[in-house]
Amino acid sequence: MWTAILAIHVVLWLVMRYSLVIIRIIKDGGVVLVTRLAGMMLSAIAVQQIINGVTQVIQGS
User: Fold this and answer.
1) Domain extents for the chain?
2) What is the pLDDT of residues 40-57, one digit of tens each?
3) What's the pTM value of the predicted model, to 2 decimals?
């Protein structure tokens, strides 16, 4: 568990450290694509949370 947490922190640090280089490589179109994918994933998580909440309310009644 701790190894996974440490690995994620290292990867996030590297991405943030070299973010300007990454942006230069993927250019504006890539930034838009990554932004849209992140938004879609966030929307999917939100919908799943709503479904889970409604399911728990229905099962609780």
Assistant:
1) 2-60
2) 999 999 999 999 999 999
3) 0.69
